[in-house]
Amino acid sequence: MADAPTPQDTIPAPAADADLMRQMFATIHLIRTFEERAAEEYMRGNIGGFLHLAIGEEAAVVGSVMALRPTDPITSTYREHGQALARGSDPRAVMAELFGRATGLCGGHGGSMHLMDRERFFFGGYGIVGGSVPLAVGLGFAISYRHEDGVALVMFGDGATNQGVLMESMNMAKLWNLPVIFFCLNNQYGMGTAVDRASAETELFKRADAFDMPSRRVDGMDVMAVYQAVTDAAHHARTEQEPSMIEAIAYRYRGHSMSDPDRTRPEEEKARWHARDPLITFERVLLGEGTVTAEDLTAIRDRNSSTVEDAVAFANDSPVADDATLADDVYAHPWTDDPRGSAEMPQVRP
Amino acid sequence: MTTDASTAAAVSYREALTQAMREELERDPNVFLIGEDIGLFEGSFKVTRGLLHEFGPARVVDTPISEAGFVGLGIGAAMSGLRPVIELMTVNFSIVAMDQIVNNAAKVRYMFGGQVSVPLVIRMPGGAGHQLGAQHSHSLEAWFTHVPGLKVVCPSTPYDAKGLLKTAIRDDDPVIFLESEGLYAKKGPVGGPDDLVPFGQAIVRRSGAHCTIVALSRMVWIALDAADTLAAEGIECEVVDPRTTRPLDLQTIADSVRRTNHCVVVDEGWPECGLAANIATHVYEACFDWLDAPIVRVNAADVPMPYARNLEQAALPRQEDVAAAVRATLARGA
Ligand SMILES: Cc1ncc(C[n+]2csc(CCOP(=O)(O)OP(=O)(O)O)c2C)c(N)n1
Ligand SMILES: [Mg+2]
Question: What is the predicted ipTM?
């Protein structure tokens, strides 16, 4: 099992200031509160389909997203509520999408696994393991094509490193010097399969060695370590036009999705990682450094609780997606408006 | 339906599949199972529950998330005479392995002049109805049925699930075995260790004189519900379940249509170039002179599957849609 990260040479980046640290804590807490509440709503039947929670992984999510500029494109997996929230998506619109409501980020077409907030350069959560990796390479390609100085970041799991498309994507990114960060959120399991039962090389960041691409492992339970690593990688991509890979070691506290009773992972292991809960450890750091006071924390908690309650109420009160939107957005310019679909069905006049 | 009284107790579709694999693993040492999370985790739909414990990790093999890789591996193993039963977690992930399935599994026997067989089964659940959204709700029967070299099986009952899977495992060609997520809990009788259900034999699930409804997999149950509704209106439907789409038992379907002179085809996939379109074409070719009205197809809406519950329900074939289709074709023929 993975433990300590291997420190490697990094390009120095400015240390985060106190405001930013408070904001990171608040975002970690927001994601935790949002997802715990989403789990409840799932049990009540207000959310359907699959619901994958990133509870336990918030430090890696927040540290990576917040180290980027708001215009740096990111993609993620089906476990992406955190990316959307960290990017600043309206919690109301995220919750409403989980509820399948007209007011959701994607109008009810997407659901929990397929959030997107194009305005905020969050280019979506995808359901096929590995499937979104080349999209980020394409986003990086577009940045480079237009001579912009953005960086594309793709978040994928440990399980995804065994999809061939990851190798294809990394090779092209390095071959063409594209500004891409391959951010592997190694939560140590792909569903019920531990990394060492799926990967011959369990130091996943070494995948990059085959492409002569810089890579490193960081402690994904430590938001500042992740923040620093992604800051370095982004700086490197912007200045040197070189992609890189980061492997953040974290742990998911819930089952793979709400339908996984999580019976196969050892209790002792869960307890060990719970002891490193990013919410608690970061809180301790911030209090210790005097970055926040106990009153600050209470205020953050209260604000997040009411934000999430408000989001749930908003989702509850929102209209369901109109049946007439069923065939919307199959095409940019549809040639029929038959509400039962038939967006492309040949039509004959009687 | 059962040839002998066999197992009297009702068994779930899921357990029927487990029984088939257990019996075939016992019967033939060349049979092995391979797929993601099928061993320790017992399968994401628990179809392989207990099998790792019974047969050990050499014969129940957990894989990385590498569909193209382990489907290709299965094809290679089959070329050397083993009988892999691959589980793809769902049909949606077969798309990642489609090159291996279409270019290798389906073609190596033909391309190399019959020197090798590919006795391979690829099991995978599919279908929509659980709000899994656009990337996890496919019905790809038509894609696979399109490909010469593959056999395509779509069981609708526990009895057929077991009997057809046993036939698939003993078959010398690559078999695409499409399970329905919506049917795993469905209970019914199953056959014993030697009750095989042959490929290419449709079954009449309900007899009726007015209209033939051809339906597969989960759609059979929707068609039967629609037939109940219509019976109350004095309309008697004959529900024909082809059970395999390649080979397709056109004879049984045509015999029925030649009696009822009307036909509705129900298919959970998309309408364009779909399974219903294909079956309808066969029926037109075989029964044109017997038909009193155009065939009506009932398909999923022509859109990627939406997430929202109401939109998904609106997109899927419902029993009301089937009943309406039957009424429409009968009205035309009157
Ligand atoms: C191509 C493909 N195969 C299988 C699945 C089913 N599946 C969904 S998530 C998952 C595990 C992925 O693990 P990992 O990449 O580590 O991400 P995590 O879920 O741990 O965040 C699997 C096997 C899928 N969605 N896509
Ligand atoms: Mg994982």
Answer: 0.93
